[in-house]
Each structure stands twice: as structure tokens, then as C-alpha cells.
Amino acid sequence: xxxxxxxxxxxxxxxxxxxxxxxxxxxxxxxxxxxxxxxxxxxxxxxxxxxxxxxxxxxxxxxxxxxxxxxxxxxxxxxxxxxxxxxxxxxxxxxxxxxxxxxxxxxxxxxxxxxxxxxxxxxxxxxxxxxxxxxxxxxxxxxxxxxxxxxxxxxxxxxxxxxxxxxxxxxxxxxxxxxxxxxxxxxxxxxxxxxxxxxxxxxxxxxxxxxxxxxxxxxxxxxxxxxxxxxxxxxxxxxxxxxxxxxxxxxxxxxxxxxxxxxxxxxxxxxxxxxxxxxxxxxxxxxxxxxxxxxxxxxxxxxxxxxxxxxxxxxxxxxxxxxxxxxxxxxxxxxxxxxxxxxxxxxxxxxxxxxxxxxxxxxxxxxxxxxxxxxxxxxxxxxxxxxxxxxxxxxxxxxxxxxxxxxxxxxxxxxxxxxxxxxxxxxxxxxxxxxxxxxxxxxxxxxxxxxxxxxxxxxxxxxxxxxxxxxxxxxxxxxxxxxxxxxxxxxxxxxxxxxxxxxxxxxxxxxxxxxxxxxxxxxxxxxxxxxxxxxxxxxxxxxxxxxxxxxxxxxxxxxxxxxxxxxxxxxxxxxxxxxxxxxxxxxxxxxxxxxxxxxxxxxxxxxxxxxxxxxxxxxxxxxxxxxxxxxxxxxxxxxxxxxxxxxxxxxxxxxxxxxxxxxxxxxxxxxxxxxxxxxxxxxxxxxxxxxxxxxxxxxxxxxxxxxxxxxxxxxxxxxxxxxxxxxxxxxxxxxxxxxxxxxxxxxxxxxxxxxxxxxxxxxxxxxxxxxxxxxxxxxxxxxxxxxxxxxxxxxxxxxxxxxxxxxxxxxxxxxxxxxxxxxxxxxxxxxxxxxxxxxxxxxxxxxxxxxxxxxxxxx
Length: 859
Fold this sequence. Notes:
By secondary structure, this protein is mainly β. Helices cover 6% and strands 50% of the residues.
């Protein structure tokens, strides 16, 4: 770490000295100014002493950014992954992210905002990106001005405002691509009262076919146990497999401007789903409905024991052994469905020449479902399948005063936010046993959760009325229900004082109070008739039965499990910035961010899994440089930072599939630099690099038993492998090196238009999926095709991905051809280790090469 820190300091010093000799005049027109709203007011990017990456509308188009998942590796230090394909993306910024935590109730340590309104439910983050003015990524804790205080950073999606011109205007884009892709996107502006009232309507629609093939035989049932009757015909249904998309989004905006005020109202609605549906037999005779999905699951037989594959019927085994990189072999696929509706009302009043009042109000509803089931064991057998379903309501109110003086600026405000998430999951285990039970002559209402179920529900199996574990056990089909409510209140203030034209000091502080309630928690298991037989998680407890309730046998009145807790924190930042010249600024800062506590959203095996997980904090120390060089033709920005991360919330998946949330300490040291260079009037180059050194900090395991819900002692946790310390492990989804290069080139004038070529490439170093693995090996090359076989603990291999776009633009229209993942690079975006549970692992591969053409008409 010391060597890397020294190299980073040397790089920053050279960059700071470079401007003194780099002001060379030329006849080339300089770069345009980039305006951001990172400090809740419009400012030049180069005058804001915060590390910020920005992508404007043209950047988004040229890089092929259609959804939030496309932002992966689009800028230094940003990694976007998901356990569910493009659904519920996980943003990791400078090593700070949710890691392996995939519960729908978990808040992201990186705040996501749309037009300044906080998006509480992570499923809503997987949105369609259309009609955007720009995306601003603020790096480092945002513990002062931003609602729902964050430890990693903030990502602001800023939509296009209505124009206030005299005439109506708009544009329409239509395109086609491989994998049956069709897309339409457009926007129109109306001005009922020119200069006073503007209205904008924008929308998008995308439809595409699957790019993954499920080779699971269609007809595995008790009437066809030997896989005969022409059942080895390939896909679950002809041409229907995971990886397709069907989504749409609509947005209505109205902007009213008076002499001393401005009002903005927005209403939006969006939906994301797969496509065609067809029935599939899961396990033996258990038919489910499978709609086309946007989920992108990928399973390879290398992930589960080869002995398991060899033990299958011959035709089955041959089919499993023959799958390729874009194929899977799984007994169930889930439908990813996300619906989001919301409204935003912003008001800005000029109280005096120097003082304004701003109000930001937002309300949204989100539905998230992975239904009816997804395969959670990674094998072709019906061992584990879970249907996820959550609904969320969220309200956010931010009100602030903004003062702008000659040498002093200040913002003070208050924030209130509340969200409620209602979850109804459906965990199913050992479905393959249903035919065994029937063949033995047991009635449909026979119920025995013993045997293998004892490992899943250790606190719920020793009671009168439960059949002996020595008898034939049954499948365990259940429901998990709970509601989580979070209320957050904050007051904040930040001021900047200019000691001179060169030297400024910024001080900000925020007090946050969070209240949490986890309530109405019940996990119930049912027999073959659908009758409830066992409640595993509830408010019922005694010494004899632990945390369970056997229906019809246990005394007392069943009550749901409910808990409450709260936390508070003072956060803020101090920044000193110095302008070395009109075009060069250096800054030093300290900032502290806070992520509120939470509850384990996958607590369906025991009430012991339900407990309050403490908040996390991140103290960051940073040195930065911002500069415009070479007669304003080059923009060069850089940062050197150190994260002191306390209580990072991480999800532990134990060998019995039991999940817990724990708090761990970590450190991240990093260096970032990005450059934009206008080489000629027709050619602009860009490049960026991020260097990260991350690790969970010291913590040797003590002798003897550990205590606590997990149990845990600092960095040491008790797992099926015994007491394990994660000290020294890298943070998940945190590559040591990422880099971006690209260019925008106006190649030639043709007729009345211009031909333009935009291309970019991104590099990601090897990174790890699992916080709790043994990473004591020497780092080496990783082959994506052998990760599951021998290299899962080595993580995702390093890779390059390239994109390109060729456009002919003339007055009133343009035609483009584009390609993403130009070299058809095969790599994974997400991985979960379930070797302890199913002798397998779970990976989500990213999209293969896609390409298409589109035309845009302006009017």
C-alpha cells in the first residue's frame, strides 16, 4: 500500500506542476464549459472542489448507455453489477457498495437521485435512461447537502427541462438491432405561454429477444422420468430463454417561470419486463408459468459437482455437460418485473437579490418481482427456488435557503424522508422430493420438515406434532412476509468563505436521525394441499420450541415478529481550495458519510436472523486537482484519497443457506485521473484511470466460541468452516485498476451533413465476488471459462470491452450504426458463492456483442 500511495502522490504532484508549463496558445477552439449542480446550485465543474465525473447527453448516446447497467466502467472508480441481470443494480463507487447484499429492503451506500429526489428502493435504480440532460457522479461521502446521507457517493440523473421558446419542437428516434431489438424514443416540447409556461413529454420503448439459451429439457415429469418422448429438444420453449427485454417509460414535465419564482412539476411511469410466456415443468410434475425475462442468469455445470452431473440419467447428463458460454441448464427461470410511478414538485422563490428558498418534493411507488421462482441452487434439480416480491412507497421533502454574497455563500436546510417496503417472498426447498412422497403412498397433507429441513430450520423442528426426522421428509414450500419502515429526519448547513480570489474554505455539517421498524414478520411452511403447517419466524418464542410455531399443536396466540430501533449521526466536510491560476485549482478535504442501519431481508429460516444491523460510517481524506490547460483545449482532473470505513454492512451466506448481515471495518486507498483533450477542431480524446487498494482491516480470530447473532467478534465470523477472519481480504467488486479511453471524431463533410465516429474502450482488472473467501493465494490470471471449476475465489478475470458508434448527421435528421462489446468479450458481472449449500456457485454473465442501427428526426 505504501508503494502505491507514493506513486499516486508523485503523479498528483507532477500533474499539479504541469499546468505551469502547459499554457500553449493555438488556433483550436477550446472545450465547452461543463456546468454541474453538485452543491445544489449551478457551477462550473472546474470550480467545485469535489471529485465529480459527468456524462452529458451526447456522451450517453455515443457510449451506448441505454440503462443504468450500461454505466459499468464508464468512468473511473464506478462498477455496476447485479445478481438479477439488469434489475436492481448495485453501484460500487471507489470500492463502496452493497457487495453481496441483494435484499430489496437494503439501502444503497451510494445515493441515487432523479432531479434531486432520492430513490429509496434499489429496484427503481434499474431504470431506462432517456431524455437526460446529464449524469453527475459525486465521489466520496455526501454527508452534508444530500438527503439520505451516504458513505460512498451520489449519482444524480438530471432530466431535460421544457424549453421556453416560441414554437413546439421535438425529436423521434427509432432503431433495430440483433437479438430482435426494437426501440423507439422521443420527446416533444410545447409552450402554451412562451417564456412563462413550458411542457415536455418524453417516452421510450424497448423490446428484444433473449440472448441466453436454457437447455434444460422441457418434459421432466413423473409421466416422463426417463426424458423420452422427444423431450431433449433444447430450450424450455422454442426461442424463449432468459436475457430478453420489454420496457417502456413516460415522463411529463411542466415548467412555470415568473419574475421571482420557478415551479417544476414532473410525473413519470415506467415498466420493465421480459416478453413471451410459456409453461415449464419444474422438478417432477410441478408446473410453473415462465414469462420471458430480463434477468440474465447464467449457470454452468462446472459450478456444481461433476459427480452430480454424472449421476443424472444419461440423456440428462449429456445435455448438461454440453452447454456453452451463452447457455444455461436450470430447472426454473424468474420473470423480472419492475414498475415505478412517481411525481416531483420543485419550487424556487427569489426572496431577495441574494437569498432564495428552494423546496423539493417527491413521491414514488415501486413494484419489484422475480416471479414465479428463480433457481437459487445453480443445479438442474429442484433443490432451491425463491420467488421475490416487494412493493415500496417513498416520500421525500427537502427545503433549503440559499444565500449568495460577494465572498460568502451558504445553504441551510431540513430534510424528511420515509419509505415503506412490503415484502412477500416464497422460498421453496427440495421440490424434487414431491414424487418420492407420492410414490411412497403418503397423502397430500403429509408434512415432515425433518432431515434436510433440520439444517434449514434448526430452531423449528423439535416439537410435538412434527413427524420424526426418521420418516420420509417432504418438500418445504413457504412464504416469507415482512414490512420495513424507515423514517429519516435531518438538518444541515454548508458555507463557503472566500478569503481571497484564490483561497476558499468550505465547512458543512449535517445531523441525521433515522428510525427503523421491522414488523409483521412471518415465515410459514405449507403441506401438499397448501394448508399452513409450520411457522418458522414469528413473535412466538419459548425455551421448548425456540422460534417456531407448529399450527394446531403449540399453545398461545400466534403474533408476527416486530422490532424497532434507531440511530443518529453527525456528519459533514471541510474543504480548502486554492486557485493556482485562473485555470488551475487544488483542494484538500475531509468528509464523513453515514449509512443508516437495517434489518436482514432474507431472515426466513429463524427469528435469530432478525436483528438490527448497526449503521456504517466512512471518513475520507482527499487531495485533488482541477485544471484547464493548453489554451483551454485540455481538461485534466485528479484525486488522491483514503477511506477509513467503519462498520461496513456485509451479507454472510453460510453453508446452510442461512443469511446474516454483519459489520466489518475496511480501508481503501485510491488515485483517480481523467482527461479530455481537444486535439483538433474535429477530434476530441478522453482517458481516465482509477487505482484502488482495498482491504478489510486487521482482526485475528480469538480462541473459543464467538458471541452475537451471527456470531461475530470484530472481523472474525463463525461459519460452517469454523471461525474465519476476513482481515486482509479485498472489498468485493473493487478492481485494483480500471481505465477508459475514447474519442469523438468528425471524420468528413458529406453533402449537407457530417460523418462522425465515436469509440471507447474500458478495462477492468480482476476483482472478487465474495467478502468471506480465502484469498491467501498468489494473484494470477483467471480464465472466465474455469472460474466455477477451480477459480471462483480468484474472482472475475480482467477484461477489455469496446463500443463504437458511426453517425451521419444533417440538418433535421441523423442516422447511426452502433455496436457494444465489439469483441464479444465473455465475462461475469456478478457472483455468489453457494458451494457450502449446494456444491455450486452462481454467476451472472454480461451481454455478448450487440449491434444495431437507428435514425433520429428533429422537428
